[in-house]
Amino acid sequence: MNPYIYQMINPEVFPTPFCPGCGHGILMGAVLRAIAELGMDMKQMLFASGIGCAAWIISPHFKADTLHTLHGRAVAYATGAKLFNPKLKVMVISGDGDISAIGGNHLIHAARRNIDMTVVCANNSIYGMTGGQVASTTPLGSFTSTTPTGNPEPPFDLCRLVQAAGATFVARHPVATPVPLTQALKKAIAHKGFSFVEALSPCPTHYGRRNAFRDAYDMIQGLRKNCISIEKAKNLPPEELKGKIIVGEFVNQGGQS
Ligand SMILES: Cc1ncc(C[n+]2csc(CCOP(=O)(O)OP(=O)(O)O)c2C)c(N)n1
Ligand SMILES: [Mg+2]
After folding, report:
1. For the chain, how big is the Rg over CA atoms in Å?
2. pLDDT single digits (tens) 49-82
3. How many CB atoms lie within 10 A of CB 7?
4. Is 57 in the pocket of ligand 1 (CB under 6 A)?
5. Which strand (E) or helix (H) includes residue 36?
6. Residue 232 burial (10 A CB sphere; 0-12, 13-18, 19+)
7. C-alpha 70 to ligand 2 mean position (Å)
């Protein structure tokens, strides 16, 4: 571990508030490693989050300027900060509900405008913090506290959504493979323009236990089994891609900052 990472966190707030087996802590480690490996100074950065379990990744854990904002509004705050101080490296890290449901409008317009910021979405397929309600990312048929007979609605593919809106760097990886996730985060942070990383993060407490996962390990193994790289997916017929999650780098246009 890069020793600089210990200067990037507030030790007094550990251990984290995350449930045992939650993937958000792995994502936190991956973000810190990415920043450390890029040799960036946290003092030149601003982190924003909304409300939810994932919103706690940056605040109070990061020893940096953080904005723990209103539910869904982190991208709007981040846009304002970037306009005020264009030299700032701005990063939003928050949950799928926060970024793509209540905050979905801010997300697509920031992507359309190609605003120079990095948005990291911790996608656990559910509203974790409020008791496991169905989200805009919950897979079709999944059980949640508000869909006891199975989710009747199809989910967003967040990477395709932001790609269609105009994002110039788009990638997805599960926390189950932290090395490619960290590499994608490094590229996203170094990218000039709107970059988006979807980090698939298991929620054993609210999603796993309602959807026949034995435990957190089972969820991590499930992600490893179901995720397939873009390169491999290209050669497979649609019937073999059923139930698979395609991961990798979907878009990489434009220069590095
Ligand atoms: C305006 C408003 N509406 C609803 C809520 C309740 N609320 C807080 S967090 C949250 C969902 C968070 O889900 P997500 O962003 O996916 O994060 P997770 O907890 O799953 O990491 C909701 C609905 C709120 N705080 N404010
Ligand atoms: Mg969530």
Report:
1. 17
2. 999 999 999 999 999 999 999 999 999 999 999 9
3. 10
4. no
5. helix 24-37
6. middle
7. 15
- Is residue 56 within 8 Å of residue 10, measured between CB atoms? no
Distances (CA, A) of 226 to 103, 152, 181, 218: 28, 22, 16, 12
Q: Does the C-beta of 97 come closer than 6 Å to ligand 1?
A: yes
Q: Is the CB of 158 under 6 A from ligand 1?
A: no
Q: Which two tokens stand for residue 169?
A: 């760097």
Ligand 1 centroid – CA 133 distance (Å): 9
Length of the chain: 257
Q: What is the pTM of this model?
A: 0.97
Dihedrals phi, psi of 139, to nearest 5 degrees = -60, 150
For residue 245, what are the β-bridge partners?
227
Q: Which two tokens stand for residue 216?
A: 């957190």
pLDDT confidence bin for 162, thresholds 50/70/90: very high
